[in-house]
Fold:
Amino acid sequence: MILAVVCVAAAAAPLLAPRGPADAHLIDRLKPPGSRDASGRVYYLGTDPLGRDELSRLLFGARISLLVGLSAVVIGGALGVGLGLYAGYHGGWADDVVMRLGDIQLAFPSILLYIAVLAVLGPGLVKVIVILGVTGWATFGRVARAQVLGVRELEFVSAAQAAGCGTARTITRHILPNILAPVIVLASFGVAANIIAESSLSFLGLGVPPAVSSWGTMLSDAQQYLRDAWWPAALPGLAITLTVLAFNAVGDWLRDYLDPHLRE
Structure:
């Protein structure tokens, strides 16, 4: 239900937002939830330090979080699963090279790697998506490879090879569908991790530009005003927490549903 609300809010943000997310009114800065402006319109969740409507910024911020989370998982999953399939099926030097690259990737703390790359390239939405996606392949690759090592020895794969199926057809038609369950579960957790990473980078000023409404930038803008107003920091923080917990809960459910041993 929480994910459904977040997705609907993100998709319908232009229709649901009472004001523009970047509309600043300094005369209405830091107004508490339920206050009204000079024309009598209600600020349902209050305003931020620049007088921007918190509800509008939360709605448009959901778009950024979901876009980054889902897009980065698609990029990382495609790269990781593709390399994992190739390495697990062929073995040999290809397996060694892919796994050693994965070990090198996982040896670096993720957040420090993001900060180092973005400090050189500069902030930007597309840059954040690409960096999170490219650096997230290793986990998908290791999981996919481990699954392929078990599936490639089963009888139906041997039968497909004996029937004349080529390597590409064997992998795409017979192996890939049978390893997707753990990949889907990993992807749900990956979306949650990417939302936290994007919020952290935006909070540090290395994510999306400050003019773009993001839950991380909302937290960054509000950190100096915690003593005067709680809502500019509490509301985006609550949104991040609930969304991440919801994705993790869905991941737990998918793991239990897709694993026949856990359903017994």
Remarks:
- Residues 125 and 208 are 5 Å apart (CA to CA).
- The chain is about 70% helix and 0% strand.
